[in-house]
Design brief:
Layout (H helix, E strand, L loop, with lengths): L2 E7 L4 H5 L12 H14 L4 E6 L3 H14 L3 E3 L16 H7 L1 H9 L12 H18 L3 E7 L1 H12 L6 H4 L7 E7 L2 E9 L5 H4 L5
Parallel strand pairs: 1-4, 2-3, 2-4
Antiparallel strand pairs: 1-5, 5-6
Helix pairs in contact: 2-3, 4-5, 6-7
């Protein structure tokens, strides 16, 4: 048996629904977002879980809670799993950011690994802090299932780092819609991707909601 990590993005928020930059701001889940969290718990409660790690933001904690209650486990909060800090872009649409911070936006779009949002966070910094959490998990568990509840950019950056994909391409190589889960197994030859952005646990209505 080997170690499997399940990377779950939080459920819908009003910011993800409206497609605005949302990193350090901390919205709650919408009612539909809560339904996504409950649907994940119903589908995955039968798996034997070793641990549940979670970003301390409200939207991720609320997403992890139904599974924690279903299996009787406490979530372990880690700041390293927080979303990218978008700095001056927080709460703004792409169109507004492109207009107000055009040069920074162009540089960030070209290579977010080394060009941050205005007064925000580099992708390489997110990779560093989030991979520390994964290393902690690997040190504690050599096999079994571990859930990581985090955010769109953070999950894609972790997956890029594990799979040998340039972190600077995280926005254009991997999808990560709300409520989706990606699965990576650590085997003899390193990390193996078993599933990317799977949402089979959501019904058709939840899967087709607008937003990111």
């Amino acid at each position: 048996m080997s170690l499997k990590l399940y990377f779950l993005r939080h459920g819908q928020t009003d910011r993800s629904r409206d497609n605005v930059f949302c990193g350090s701001i901390d919205p709650d889940l919408t009612p539909d977002g809560l339904e996504m969290a409950k649907a994940f718990a119903v589908t995955y409660r039968s798996l034997p879980w070793n641990a549940i790690f979670c970003s301390p933001m409200r939207r991720t904690v609320a997403t992890a809670k139904p599974l924690c209650e279903a299996v009787g486990m406490q979530m372990e909060l880690r700041d390293g799993l927080k979303e990218i800090n978008y700095g001056k872009w927080e709460g703004k649409t792409i169109e507004t950011v492109d207009r107000e911070y055009h040069d920074d936006y162009i540089r960030w779009t070209a290579d977010p690994a080394w060009y941050p949002p205005t007064e925000g966070e580099l992708a390489v910094a997110i990779a560093h802090r989030s991979l520390q959490v994964i290393e902690e998990i690997k040190q504690r568990f050599s096999n079994g299932n571990v859930l990581i509840v985090a955010h769109k950019a953070t999950i894609r950056i972790m997956l890029c780092s594990l799979l040998g994909i340039d972190v600077g391409r995280f926005r254009f190589r991997l999808g990560c819609p709300v409520g989706s889960v990606s699965i990576v197994e650590f085997g003899a030859h390193g990390p193996l991707l078993h599933a990317l952005s799977d949402r089979i646990h959501l019904d058709e209505r939840l899967r087709t909601l607008p937003g990111t």
